[in-house]
Amino acid sequence: MYSEKKSFAYRAALAIFLVWVLPSLACNFPFAENSNRLAVELQTTLTAMVDPGLHEPTPVPEGEVDQYLSPEGEIQSFIPTAVSIQRPIPPVLDGSGHSFTYLTASGDILQAVAKRFAVEPNEILSAEPIPEVGLLPPGRVLMIPNQLGELRYTEFLLPDSEVVNSPSARDFQIEEFINAAGGYLSEHYEQVNGSFLSGAEIVRKVSLENSINPRLLLALLELRSGWVYGDPVDPGQLDYPIGFYVPDYKGLYYELVLTATHLGVGYYGWRSGEKTILTFQDGSVLRLSPGLNPGTVGLQTVLSKISTQEEWRNTLYAETGFVDLYSAMFGDPWGQAAEIGDLIPADLTQPDLLLPFAVGERWSFTGGPHRSWNAGSPRGALDFSPVTGEPACTTSRAWVTASAPGVVTRAGDSVLAIDLDGDGYEQTGWVLVYLHMVMPEDILPGKTIAVDEPLGHPSCERGQSTGTHIHLARKYNGEWIQAGDPVPFMLSGWETIVGEKNYQGELHKGEQIITANPGGPSSSLITRDQ
Description:
There is one protein chain. A hairpin with a 2-residue loop joins strand 21 and strand 22 (512-515). This protein is α+β, with helices and mostly antiparallel strands. The protein has 3 domains: 4-82 and 156-340, no CATH class; 92-145, Roll (Membrane-bound Lytic Murein Transglycosylase D, Chain A), CATH 3.10.350; 362-527, Distorted Sandwich (Glucose Permease (Domain IIA)), CATH 2.70.70.10. The chain is built from 11 helices and 23 strands. Strands 8, 9, 11, 12, 13, 15, 17, 18 and 23 form a 9-stranded antiparallel beta sheet that branches. It has a 4-stranded antiparallel beta sheet with strand order 19-20-21-22, with no helix packed on it. It starts with a helix and ends with a strand. The radius of gyration is 23 Å and the shape is globular. The longest helix has 21 residues, at 252-272.
C-alpha cells in the first residue's frame, strides 16, 4: 500500500503523462481526482513490460567501473517544457531497395556512418563534398548502398540530451523530485565506499561520475523495481533494483553504475560506429538500424543486457512502453531537446589548452587515449607522470597545473572538474576532469581557477593505478569527447594521435613525436616550452 504522500506523488506523475498525451493541456502538473484507477492501470501495464524475476547475472563491462568521486552541492529544479518537436527521420530506401537516403545528424563523422551502414566511406555519395575528417554538417543528404536489407526498430526513442548529463539536466533537482515521489527510494540509505548515502545522493553521484542524465536513471529504476513511486515487490530488488544480478555488485549504487556503464557502451559505441549489434540475455542477437541516434542506442543497449529480445521489444516498442513512462515522469523528452538544440555543434572546436604542468618541467606521456571514466566512456583521456625520481605510487611533490581558466564544479576523492565556460555547471560547455590528484584544502567547488594555477599533486589515488600520474579528460555539454577525430585533444600545440589499443598513441607537434609508454623511456618524455 502507498502512503497518502506516495499516492499523491504518483497521481501527480500520471497527470504529467496526461499532459504529454493531450497537447491541449498545459504542462503544469495538474491533479485529477479520478486518477487513482488510471494510475493503477498504468502501473499494471508498466509492471508487465519487464519480468523482474530474471536472475541471470549480467557480465560486468571491463574497465575502471570502481572509480568514483563525491559530487558537491545541490542541483536546482527543472521545469519541463510543453514544446514538442518531431523525432529525426530514419533512412529512406529508394524504390529499388538498393540505396538509402540518410540525413546526417549532430555528431556524425564519415567513418562512423560507414560502419553503421556496413559500407566503406568511399561508397557514400553526396551532391556536396563530404569531409573525410571532422564533423559532418547536420542535414547533409547522403546516398548509401543498402547492405543490411530490411531495417527493424527504426524508431527514435530518446534524444541524446536525455541520456547524457546534458544542459537538459542542469537545473533538475534530484532530491526534491525523489522526496515528492515518496517511494522507497526517498527512504533508502546504503554504505558506499565508506560513506552512508541516501538514494538521492547515490543517483546524483552516479550521474555526475558517469555523466549520465539523472532523469534516465530514475526512470529505469522505476521501470525495473518501482522504487521511485512505490515499494519493491520482489525481495531480490532490494539488492538488485535494476536486475543485473552481478554477485559482487549488490546495492543501488553498483546497480546504477552498471546501468550508466551500459548506457555509455551503447551511446559512445554508436557515436564511434563500433556498436552495431545487440546481444540479449537469451543469447539472441539483433543488427541495429543504422540511422538511429546515440541516445536511442544507449537505451536499447542497457535494456538488452537485462532482458530477452521479446521482453526488450515489449518494453520499448509496445503500445505503452518505456518512453511513455519517461514522459509521465518528466515531460516530453523531444520538447526538452528542442530547448537545447544540438549537443555537438557542427563547428565545435576545442579551446586553447596547455599541458597540465609548468613550463620547463619534464614529464612522461605514460598513457595514450583510453577510457575517459570507465568501460562506458570513449577513449578520451591522457596520462602524464612527473619525472622526479620519487618512489612509485607516492604522492609526488610536482604540481599539476590548470590547462585553462575556469570554475571548480567538483573537488574530492582525488577528482577535480573545472568548468571552462564559467557558469559553474558541469552539464554545459567544455569541462576538464582531472583524476588521481591530491588537492590542497582551498580547491573547492565555486573557486575561480586561473590558467597555470597549481591544482594538486599527481598520485595513485582512486581507480586502478600502478604509478603516480595525472589522468586528464574532456567533456562538452555533458558528453565525453574522444581524444582523436572529430575534435582532437590538443595540449600546448601537441595533437593527440589515437593508437590501436587503449593507452597506445602519440603526441605530434610539427616533426616532433612523443610516444605513450608507461615505462617512461626517453621517447615518452615531454617538456612544456610555452
